[in-house]
């Protein structure tokens, strides 16, 4: 059985791209198909993969404008040559599920979310820097067309795997399809409890792509308000805007992309990770917990499945700066109550090996003819 892996785009390194790394460990002979690939933005592990791209790879200014080409991704995905493969695993939050397989092949979609800017347009658009004419009149016309495409693309998916129960419910609501939950992998061998983990750190930490909907501006404003140190790891299109929000504060530090060793060190040395957005799952809270550090998270989405309130972290209930500030203050008053060994033990059930075993068994069942299609 020949397996192909298909991913939306490989131009930023985040949680979904870490999933691709592990999928490739399970299926090392599988090529990785994608719309665009920018190796300079990806770790060396991707250089060992057979990565195959579309005509979009030749487009100019991909770093800045890859989102502006959004109407062309459906065409690009349809152009991918996967007809020789028996099993296609699409890793998708948007376009990869639109890949075209041959009739007797099986398409399994590992779904991070129903396409966010299509199905949750108002939430997605509220912090993007579009003019009122574009966001109110022009984009909704394109979105209407893309929603039709999205529903058509779903017809080509034989089985859905959801990254969380939160997304399982969204797949059911948007696509009227059932799915099985397999949580994304965390490489716990990289993250350890050390002496820094057992001591009170001097800073709070954010580890994230710097996109508008991630609510990192709330973390910056809350830490400025409380005069707390905040280190931010990650890159993205919203960096310039976030630096404006931080202003000349000496308490806010942007670290950009860091090595795995540095990342582990920052996790171990922080007081807590701040996870301010509503996420479909969220890898960074588990990496922090694997390092024995608690998480301050917004009480929605996947965080509710990975954090135990009062034991491995605390939640803030309202999607605003005041609610986050209040929770940071509450955390400061109780941070000595969090036990690193208890935090790490909870996180271990999300280990990479659990993911590998679950996904391999799932695909083996398909190969052995034991999986009945959802459709």
Explain this structure to me?
This protein has 375 residues and is α/β, with parallel strands linked by helices. It is 38% helix and 14% strand. It has a 7-stranded parallel sheet with strand order 3-2-1-4-5-6-7. A 6-stranded parallel sheet has the order 10-9-8-11-12-13, with helices on both faces. Helix 1 (15-26) crosses helix 15 (352-367) and helix 11 (284-290) crosses helix 14 (340-347).
Short description:
With 375 residues, the chain is of the alpha/beta class. It has helices spanning 15-26, 62-65, 73-79, 116-119, 121-125, 132-154, 165-175, 216-226, 239-246, 260-269, 284-290, 303-306, 321-334, 340-347, 352-367; strands spanning 3-7, 32-34, 51-52, 87-92, 106-111, 159-162, 180-181, 204-207, 230-233, 252-256, 272-275, 295-298, 313-316.
């Amino acid at each position: 059985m020949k397996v192909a892996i298909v991913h939306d785009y490989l131009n930023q390194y985040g949680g979904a791209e870490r999933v691709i790394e592990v999928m490739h460990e399970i299926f090392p002979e599988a090529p990785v198909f994608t719309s665009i690939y920018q190796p300079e933005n990806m770790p060396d592990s991707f250089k060992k993969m057979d990565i195959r791209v579309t005509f979009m790879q030749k487009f100019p200014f991909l770093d800045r404008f890859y989102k502006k080409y959004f109407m062309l991704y459906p065409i690009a995905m349809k152009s991918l040559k996967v007809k020789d493969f028996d099993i296609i695993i699409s890793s998708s939050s948007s376009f990869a599920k639109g890949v075209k397989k041959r009739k007797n092949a099986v398409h399994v979609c590992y779904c991070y979310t129903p396409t966010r800017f299509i199905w949750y347009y108002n939430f997605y658009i509220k912090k993007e820097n579009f003019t009122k004419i574009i966001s109110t009149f022009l984009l909704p016309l394109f979105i209407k067309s893309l929603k039709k495409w999205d529903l058509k693309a779903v017809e080509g998916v034989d089985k859905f795997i959801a990254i969380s129960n939160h997304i399982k419910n969204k797949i059911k609501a948007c696509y009227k399809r059932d799915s099985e939950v397999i949580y994304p992998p965390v490489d716990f061998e990289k993250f350890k409890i050390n002496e820094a983990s057992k001591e009170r750190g001097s800073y709070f930490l954010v580890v994230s792509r710097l996109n508008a909907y991630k609510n990192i501006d709330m973390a910056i404003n809350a830490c400025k308000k409380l005069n707390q140190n905040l280190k931010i790891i990650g890159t993205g299109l919203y960096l310039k805007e976030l630096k404006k929000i931080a202003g000349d504060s000496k308490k806010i530090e942007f670290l950009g992309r860091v090595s795995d060793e540095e990342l582990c060190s920052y996790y171990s040395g922080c007081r807590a990770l701040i996870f301010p957005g509503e996420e479909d799952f969220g890898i960074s809270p588990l990496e922090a917990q694997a390092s024995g550090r608690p998480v301050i998270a917004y009480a929605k989405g996947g965080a509710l499945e990975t954090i135990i309130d009062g034991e491995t972290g605390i939640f803030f209930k309202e999607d605003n700066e005041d609610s986050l500030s209040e929770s940071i203050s509450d955390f400061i008053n109780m941070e000595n109550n969090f036990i690193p060994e208890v935090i790490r033990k909870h996180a271990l059930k999300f280990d990479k090996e659990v993911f590998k075993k679950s996904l391999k068994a799932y695909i083996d069942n398909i190969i052995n003819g034991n999986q009945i299609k959802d459709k």
